[in-house]
Amino acid sequence: MSKDKLQDSQSAQQNGKRPIPLETLPEPSTDHDDLIAVEAEVVPSGPKRSSNRWLRVGAVGILLAVGLGGITFFRRQTVVPQSKSPTVEQNLPTILPVETVTVERVSSYSISQSYTGIVEAQRTSELSFEQSGLLLSLAAKEGDQVAQNAVIGRLDTRQLQAQRQGLIAQKQQAQATLTELQNGPRQETIAATRALLTQEQARLRELQAGPRVENIDAARSRVRDLEEQLELARLQTQRRRDLYAEGAISREQF
Q1: Which of 24, 42, 111, 181 has the lowest CB atom count within 10 Å?
Q2: What PANTHER family does the annotation carry (predicted)?
């Protein structure tokens, strides 16, 4: 028995453990000579035991923290969807339409590139109205495409329309005057001149019948003057008519 104690003590010292003394039991009173062996429990030393205890406490704390975190995460996952009142459509998977492309062998490919800049026309021209006035509407703005002869703006033409009507009236009056001149002098003027000529001719005949020669000569001279005045009036009228037709004189001068 002492030998076994010595071996256990040596093995405990080699393992860094404190040996525990063992007590031997008294010999049994029975007839058998068997010995009852008592197992020796090796108890770790003080510092080693305390470090193991702290490790166990730390492991338990970590397990508790992980468990609490998992419970909190699970509760959030279950509570938040209920507050949003999910529908059946929200739980369904989202289906995205796709376009299929057939793979083909090609010998070349093109690369498109985009750049940032300002597009300027090669040729520009400034447009304006022939006359100034009040702008009523503008059908196009900068950058719009317009076709040829398209109306892009309108002016207030009420004043121009009034001027146009006045010019039309003047044209009609000038046309009437031209027609009258083309038809010859007025019949009233010709009739008055003829009446005056007839009166003078009658006076001439009367004087020719009388005895006074000077009166006859005076009457003849007066008749010749009237005839010359009539011819001069005809020539002047014809000349003015020709000048007006050529545009050399105005209607007032005519």
Answers
A1: 111
A2: HLYD FAMILY OF SECRETION PROTEINS (PTHR30469:SF15), MULTIDRUG RESISTANCE PROTEIN MDTA (PTHR30469)
